[in-house]
Design a protein that fits this description.
This protein is of the alpha/beta class and 443 residues long. It contains 16 helices and 14 strands. The protein has helices at residues 10-21, 33-40, 51-60, 70-76, 97-109, 126-140, 162-167, 179-193, 205-236, 240-248, 269-282, 288-314, 342-352, 365-372, 406-412, 427-432, and strands spanning 2-6, 25-29, 64-67, 79-82, 114-118, 148-152, 172-175, 200-203, 323-327, 356-360, 377-378, 391-394, 417-420, 436-438. Strand 9 (323-327), helix 13 (342-352) and strand 10 form a beta-alpha-beta unit. Helix 9 runs parallel beside helix 12 (288-314), helix 11 (269-282) packs across helix 12 and helix 12 packs across helix 13 (342-352). Bound molecules: nicotinamide-adenine-dinucleotide (NAD). Nicotinamide-adenine-dinucleotide (NAD) binds at residues 6-12, 29-32, 35, 83-86, 98, 101-102, 120-121, 155, 157, 159, 267-268.
């Protein structure tokens, strides 16, 4: 099928490359010329394991192209995917300006039948807005006879595992109001579910739009539930890992998304929880659990930073003389994405208390620099960053941090204390080597 992917970010690039991998003819378009130049010069502007190889293979096979030329992309395709950002407004509402701008642009240039697909995460009712904007633009040009359909196809890939998620989805959701597009989308996605037999769920558009937010809000709540309990574990002297085992072995609960940490972050959970709350508000309904999730997550992010700060305050240390080395900046491992990463909150809080911060992340340093600038020191090696440090705080659970050379760490640090924000190290081993150790919810 002929596809154009409007927006070549984390979702658009992966989705476009994977559709091409299945033999479709794909153009990815982006208004960011720098991004498109990188792609046309053989680079990849984001870090996602395996993506470079898939892009290279499909560019060579003439199934994948990149352009800033919107007209070229739209006239090329029958399926027009909108995969632009939907950031949150000041009050948490999803900002649809990019989505509706793209819809308008499509209406301004389309000359034949198109299926316009909301791939971005958009609030319930957005498909109607997209339809309205396109119709308006067609009318302005006297082209109201040109037919089009609007489909909701929310994306569930996870950064760091995006290719695998897209190539073998647990489910595909298609929100449509007619059988013609339902059949088209079954054909498009059939190669992705052929080996797993996982379902392609055809549903009404509003339910599809809501299903995406419901999934993210539920997962955010699950993470937050274990985080709240972890604070209680710290207070009563219980171990959250053992509590998790006790809960997670119940098949009704399951062990996933039950790992305590410094709060959820990333480009999706925080904004999607907020947007869902706002959608309900506009309908005169209040989502009490989602509101509590958001509030508890804010507290969780502060909790880890306070744990660090309080440790030195209790020693009566002069905080301006303290240097904390941080391992991990990205909101999760295997991505360069630091949008809403808990590390940013922790760092800001340490800095506000006068503590000096040095950081190491295997992939996320460039993106961190764009946000934090020269407020902190960036060190290119995970051991060098510890040289003379008064504490190590682990914020992202990159594999390379899981079995570190502890004696070497102890030699390098001025004060051997580890704040393990992801509970990835073995407390008894660490303590036996003479470190002070603080996890999250480990008593
Ligand atoms: N990142 C994820 O893990 C993920 C997962 C599922 C769903 N989503 C959703 O997918 C959407 C996109 O997320 P993302 O992380 O890929 O965002 P992103 O910021 O990485 O990419 C968006 C891209 O759209 C481009 N863009 C904006 N306006 C444009 C226009 N008018 N014409 C052409 N290009 C334009 C931007 O330049 C940018 O490259 C969001 O709604 C997000 O919530 C994201």
């Amino acid at each position: 099928m002929k596809i154009c992917m409007i927006g070549s970010g984390y979702v658009g690039l992966v989705t476009g490359a994977c559709f091409a991998e299945m033999g479709n003819d794909v153009i990815c378009v982006d208004e960011n010329k720098e991004k498109i130049d990188v792609l046309n010069n053989g680079g990849v502007p984001i870090y996602e394991p395996g993506l470079k190889e898939v892009i290279e293979r499909n560019v060579q096979g003439n199934r994948l192209r990149f352009t800033t030329d919107f007209n070229e992309a739209v006239s090329h395709c029958q399926l027009c995917f909108i995969a632009v950002g939907t950031p949150q407004d000041k009050d948490g509402t999803a900002d649809l300006k990019y989505v509706l701008q793209v819809a308008r642009q499509i209406g301004q240039v389309m000359e034949d039948y198109k299926v316009i697909i909301d791939k971005s995460t958009v609030p319930v009712g957005t498909a109607d807005k997209v339809r309205g904007v396109v119709t308006e633009e067609l009318k302005k040009r006297g082209r109201e006879h040109i037919e089009f359909d609007v489909v909701s196809n929310p994306e569930f890939l996870k950064e760091g595992n995006a290719l695998q998620d897209f190539m073998r989805p647990e489910r595909v959701i298609i929100g449509t109001d007619n059988v013609r597009t339902a059949a088209l989308f079954k054909e498009l996605y059939d190669p992705f579910i052929r080996t797993t037999n996982n379902p392609i769920l055809i549903m009404d558009i509003k339910s599809a739009e809501l299903a995406k937010y419901a999934s993210n809000a539920f997962l955010a709540t699950k993470v937050t539930f274990i985080n709240e309990l972890a604070i209680l574990c710290d207070k009563v002297g219980a171990d959250i890992s053992q509590v998790r085992e006790g809960m997670g072995t119940d098949s009704r609960i399951g062990p996933r998304f039950l790992l305590a940490g410094p709060g959820y972050g990333g480009s999706c959970f925080p904004k999607d929880v907020q947007a869902l709350i706002q959608t309900a508000k506009t309908m005169g309904h209040s989502l009490e659990i989602c509101q509590a999730t958001h509030k508890a997550n804010q507290r969780q992010k502060a909790y880890f930073a306070e744990k660090i700060i309080n440790y030195y305050k209790e020693q009566n240390a002069d905080l301006s003389e303290i240097t904390i080395a941080i391992w991990g900046l990205t909101f999760k491992p295997k991505t360069d994405d630091i949008r809403e990463a808990p590390a940013l909150d922790v760092i800001e809080k340490l800095l506000a208390n006068g503590i000096n911060v040095r950081v190491f992340d295997p992939i996320g340093m460039d993106n961190a620099r764009k946000i934090l600038g020269d407020k902190i020191t960036y060190v290119d090696d995970n051991y060098e960053v510890l040289d003379g440090a008064d504490g190590l705080a682990i914020i992202t659970e990159w594999n390379m941090f899981k079995s570190p050379d502890l004696p070497r760490i102890k030699d390098l640090m001025k004060i051997p204390v580890i704040f393990d924000g992801r509970n990835i190290l073995n407390p008894s081993e660490i303590k036996s080597l003479g470190f002070n150790y603080f996890g999250i919810g480990r008593g």
